[in-house]
Amino acid sequence: MTGLPAESAPAAGTALETGASFHEMWAELLPIGRNPDSGGYRRYAWTGADADCRAWFRAQATARGLSYELDRNGNQWAWLGDPAAGDAVVTGSHLDSVPDGGAFDGPLGVVSSFAALDELAARGARPNRPLAVVNFGDEEGARFGLACVGSRLAAGQLTTAAAHRLRDAEGISLPQAMERAGHDPEAIGPDPERLARIGAFVELHVEQGRALDLSGDPVGIASAIWPHGRWRFDFHGEANHAGTTRLEDRHDPMLTYANTVLAARKKARLAGALATFGKVSVEPNGVNAIPSLVRGWLDSRAADQETLDAVVAEIERAAQERGARDGVRVSVARESFTPVVEFGHALRDRLSALLGGAPVLPTGAGHDAGILSAAVPTAMLFVRNPTGVSHSPAETAREDDCLAGVTALADVLEGLACH
Ligand SMILES: [Zn+2]
């Protein structure tokens, strides 16, 4: 238990119980969806690993005598108190992962939420508002290409029709995947009544950068989420023989793509933004064939919308210019976009007061909290990540920092719901 900040350290008995419940839950989740080759997690929406995570969540709810709900959009809720009473304080995160993701992104928030409820119980705290833990479905968008599907649907930021059109790499549609997992895809859609019950939503998450490591704080509070989006770049060239086609006769889309990747890096660096091509598909994908089509997905983020728009426009211009030289046709389509999220100052200031001295920092990573902030007062807590690495098996957090996060979350929940 070393490293707990003295001002927020709970009574000794409480800390022990919190640590025990955290460790037990963490150990149960750890093997689910773990790929033994990479050590990373493959917990994709509506797969077997996802079902195992969901069963775990439900078991946690049941074990604590919380009432369990699965909503129309596949989000799971565990309620302490009467949900219908309204003005609830909700905490939670997600349990799904990116391909070969780390153990902390998502699960740390869900496990910490249950552990924080345990700590409140150990403190003898008496909530006068309903409390809930939520597991939002399909946060990472690893399977269907769109992030935060569960919260977007609930908040009306993704229509039922658009969700029904989502397909995975095997061509399985979201409705098909839901049906196979026993969930009714016709039921999905806006859920304003459910969101109207929430008076405050607080998501705890492992930090996906090194700001807390650099400031030396175990826990921080989010100020804002950078605007971010995904763009699909299609580079149409001409398939031909790798051994017989003269270099000057080629229309090689791989060349245009490669130059675009380099341009993206340069434009982002000059603008203080981020730009990443992390996914690519090639047709026909043969070693001895010049490709006919290269499709690359750009993820770009910046502190403000103007900068982001400018960076993406410059990357597209660079792709078009290079495409013209290579005889390759370039088309660009925006697949998703999330505007800047400024977390409400009132709740943020309340958290700051409850966690005296915790630093306030922005993040470039999207979260369900960002989606929900349009509908309900929302805040986020970050737990220090000593390497800053995330979306990788190397993602990590120190044990005492995780427990400091639980204590901070319990302090916040107690401050919001018990006074
Ligand atoms: Zn996450």
From TrEMBL:
Query: Looking at the record's lineage, which domain of life comes first?
Result: Bacteria
Which parts of the sequence bind Zn(2+) 1? 94, 105, 205
Binding of Zn(2+) 2, residues: 105, 140, 391
The free-text note explaining how the cofactor binds reads: Binds 2 Zn(2+) ions per subunit.
What does the sequence similarity comment in the record state about its family?
Answer: Belongs to the peptidase M20 family.
NCBIfam families hit by this protein = hydantase (TIGR01879), PRK09290.1-4 (NF006770)
Q: What is this protein called?
A: Allantoate amidohydrolase
Taxonomic lineage from the root: Bacteria, Bacillati, Actinomycetota, Actinomycetes, Kitasatosporales
